[in-house]
Amino acid sequence: MAAVADIVLNTAADLTRAQAWLPAPLHVVGSGDGTVDVGWTPDGSTHRYQVRLDADEHRLEWRPVDHDGWPGHLRVVEGGAGASEVELQVEAGAGVAEDDVRAALDRALRGLAAEVEQNFNVS
């Protein structure tokens, strides 16, 4: 991404901005101190996730509170010349096609890059 790691990580960790880059059919229902409620449009379910930011490691982690959901993490590393690279991983549930997961993660990364560019005028 065309921004330093701190900007990318802070954008990803700002739960008020998550809706702008989460891929459909996910949507933010609400957030609290260290938690975010994410809705899944196809079946109307909502899952609460505990979110933890490790700024020193440039890492954002999330874990489902009720063990029903996809745990994962986002890690940002400096890429040189004002750029960074983002790694996004999730532990998808059983019966989910790997290609569908990969496509959703790609949409999330494109959405995050667009949110960073739009809000910080990075080119």
Summarize this, please?
With 123 residues, this protein is an alpha+beta fold.
Question: What can you tell me about this protein's structure?
Answer:
With 123 residues, the protein is an alpha+beta fold. The chain has a single domain (5-120), classed as 2-Layer Sandwich (Alpha-D-Glucose-1,6-Bisphosphate, Chain A, domain 4), CATH 3.30.530.20. 29% of the residues lie in helices and 37% in strands. The protein has helices at residues 5-13, 18-21, 98-120, and strands at 26-32, 35-40, 45-54, 59-64, 72-80, 83-90. Helix 1 (5-13) crosses helix 3 (98-120). The longest helix is centred in the C-terminal third of the chain and has 23 residues, at 98-120. The chain is globular. It starts with a helix and ends with a helix.
Q: Tell me the count of domains.
A: 1
Shape: globular
What kind of sheet is the major sheet?
A: 6 strands, antiparallel
CATH superfamily: START domain
Q: What is the alpha-carbon Rg in Å?
A: 14 Å
Quick tags:
123 residues; Alpha-D-Glucose-1,6-Bisphosphate, Chain A, domain 4; 37% strand; 3 helices; globular
SSE layout and pairing:
Elements: H1 5-13, H2 18-21, E1 26-32, E2 35-40, E3 45-54, E4 59-64, E5 72-80, E6 83-90, H3 98-120
Helix pairs in contact: 1-3
